[in-house]
TrEMBL record:
Pfam families the UniProt entry points to: Hydrolase
Organism domain of life: Bacteria
Name assigned to this protein: HAD family phosphatase
């Protein structure tokens, strides 16, 4: 490696993203609980009380998705089979097409990561998607046992990216996570669907050293 190559590596900037609310429109949890309630013939409030009481067990990988569903069934009285629940759950993902287009358009010299508070089965589903081949590093909370905004989750992202946090932007739709990313040393970029074009300009400006 020449000195110019080394200098380029030390100044090259990169980007990592959250998934829910960034690569999706609306909240995955909100849409899936709506659909479970409708299919099960119970109120959304009943489903959400149980769902959000226990969802952290999924986020940190303490429970499998079948375990989570069994508890949800017991507490809500919903009776349809796990296999149907899994299909319903995964089909609740509503892609944010402009963000996937932005991902595909990133220069090949830019390393791309993902840090997501996620769930078993869902993370496997995402990893298998063709669009996810563009990511160089995938960090899911359910696989490392730690969720944002814990600083250890950002340490795991930095390690997976194999680049310093200071050279990496982190994109999230939750201010608390942006604050945590900034505190760790990343360059936080708060995202909202309504400002997608402005976001692309902000990211392009960050990547253009």
């Amino acid at each position: 490696m020449t000195s110019s190559d080394s200098s380029s590596l030390s100044t090259q900037r990169h980007v990592a993203f959250d998934w829910g609310g960034v690569f999706t429109i609306g909240t995955f949890d909100g849409r899936s609980t709506d659909r479970v309630a409708e299919r099960g013939g119970v109120s959304v409030e009943t489903v959400r009380q149980s769902y959000f009481r226990h969802v952290r067990q999924l986020e940190v990988g303490a429970w499998t998705l079948p375990q989570f569903w069994a508890t949800l069934q017991q507490e809500t009285g919903v009776e349809f089979a796990y296999e149907e629940f899994e299909a319903l759950y995964l089909s609740s993902i509503h892609d944010n097409a402009p963000m996937y287009a932005a991902l595909a358009a990133l220069p090949k010299t830019v390393r791309v990561g993902l840090l997501s508070n996620n769930y078993p089965v869902v993370s496997d589903h995402l990893r298998a998607r063709p669009e996810f081949a563009r990511f160089d590093a995938l960090v899911f909370s359910n696989e490392i046992g730690i969720k944002k905004p814990d600083p250890q989750s950002f340490a795991a992202l930095e390690e997976a990216m194999q680049r310093p946090a200071a050279q990496t932007a982190f994109v999230d739709d939750v201010q608390e996570n942006i604050d945590a990313a900034n505190a760790y040393g990343f360059h936080g970029l708060l995202y909202s669907h309504e400002r997608h074009e402005a976001f692309e300009k902000e990211l392009a400006a960050w990547l253009s050293v």
